[in-house]
């Protein structure tokens, strides 16, 4: 049974639970906070700078977004792509949304840095292999926080350009 609180927080949804405690989150989980979206560094990822744009309310599909949320999503992914290029030096970014994993059906959009030297076998959809690497290869919390702070600074600069 799913319990939904008055604020729309679903207890069975990782993203809803995290969205409900914004002030307690580390820098890696609040790179950017907007009216409709929150940007976090991907957990259990072996690729530094793998970002996830998480809807602030519980929706499971882009079709459920308001026009304002959809517009904000476009702007956020553009700003993140620019910030990732500034901070990581990546050649380009990938943007994808599936929201199919159990406990993670809450709409979230991946913004993934693709470095110039990423092996050809890991490009395109194969980049998702970086989410299936062993824990020893995951980006450390300290490295995620450091990247988060650099990305937040870059995002501030981009919004002032």
UniProtKB/TrEMBL annotation:
UniProt keyword annotation of Hydrolase present: yes
Motif (Histidine triad motif): 106-110
Domain HIT: 48-125
Keywords: Hydrolase
Pfam families referenced in this protein's UniProt entry, alphabetically: HIT (PF01230)
UniProt-recorded Gene Ontology molecular function terms: hydrolase activity
Keyword Hydrolase: yes
Name assigned to this protein: HIT family hydrolase
